[in-house]
User: Fold this.
Amino acid sequence: MRAIVYLPIKPEVAKENNLPVKLPVLAEDVPKITQENRIPLDVIIRGLEAQVSLNRDDKEYYSTYLQYFYYEKFKKLIAEKDYDSAREILEKAKSLGEDYRYHFYKGILLREMGNEKEAEIEFKIASSMNPNFSLPHYELGRMYMRNGEYSDAEAEFLKALEKDPDFPLPYVKLGDVYLSRGDIENAVRMYESALRKSKNLPDVYNRLGVIENTFQNFEKAEMMFRKALEIAPDYHDAKYNLAFTLTKLGKLFEALEILLELEKSLPDDPMILNELGIVMRELGLFEESIKRLERALELSKDDGIKFNLARSLMFVDRDRAKEILNDLLASDFSEEASRLIRYMDMKRELDLEELGEIGSLSEEISNCRDLKCVLENIEPPEDLKDRVESILEGYIPKGGDIDTVDLLDLGAAYILSAEDFVEMEKNAIEFSVAVYGSGIMIAVLRVILRAIQMRLSEGEADPDSLIDSVVPEIQDIHWKFSLKLSKSLESIPSEHPKKGSDFVPSLLHFLKYGDPPEFYLPWIELLKPKSNDLSPIR
Assistant:
């Protein structure tokens, strides 16, 4: 006979963990408890098995605990996909008394092994043996849903809630059923009902975030994804979705940090690498962007990734970029590829002296080969002083939330100092990231870049055409500013703006309707030929 010792368990601990207050444990297993500072499941089962085998008066008392822990062991084995051992332990539980639980767990085993017809029978037996048991209906609903039988799934989830209105998971699955039908309102209602029952549902917060993204409610989406990550910090889908959302909100540096974290966890996920490559390009990290996109393309021969790679390559290797784009001319990206090939050949053909004060400023800095040289002889405004000093010391400071008109004329001049359109774009990215370090100013400089390029290629920057062409581009890096931009011509302009995000829409307004205040005249000279010059307000 094997020696048994009895561990005293505090009543509250025993109740919480469904343990007897005097837990039988084999003497040989006691060191394991000491070593692990917990009671392993297998130790509990061996002790209870030994106790039950004694056939004492307390056999029935201990048998109920043993049967419970057999089922706990069964769930662990199912999670490990050890189905043979799971079947064995299930039969041990049955030997102690066949009840509704046996048929429910047998249904789980059969379903996991792919025998759904027999699983369905077992779930129904379990339900008939215990009409108040909600789990068989929930599992039947999941099975039906997996097979695309949404009406049957809905009926089972509703039955589960009839039996247990406080069970949160049927609400979640009902939300999924409604979402599959496009019934967003009822899907959201179900997800919110689930959260009223339990706040510990990261999947639900993630689903709600995705829905908010669909309706461009990016700030609400951000909040939902952050709640999901508070509960489950390593929830990869929520991290990826949050990074996407932050990009739309102009929080590119934060998105970059999250995507770099994801890359460490999932280094071979092409979606993560593709998104990371795009964000790196927007921040001027071209070599790093190319490295990620090349790896993504190795993992997934997707034409979208191939186009993104060419888009990044054009800043460092135009011949290779064109080679890739030529391969895409017979794909769904033919129009985009053709347009980008033309873009790479476009040059600044107007003399800088024809572009007013900003053109003259550009001529003054045209001998500078880098941004540090451009900034050396200026007196930076107070809000940019620390950033400019950092650049002059040789490093780029971290991102912030700057939104200003300060140094925008120098930024435009730096764009113009390049002789072709690709280098202009490179200068715009470099200036906005280094000098301002904010998503909103990256977007502002992007619009200024496109306005300058339209002036050079088409003779003038037509506000209507510019808005139509640039808004989709800005939507990807700052959704809120893109909305403001789209309403530029309908809004009341600011005569003396302090923010870059107010200045650009106002500039477009004055370009369209005339009568610009004196503040805007250098920009009007830049973007309109002299014959079309506009008179300032007197």
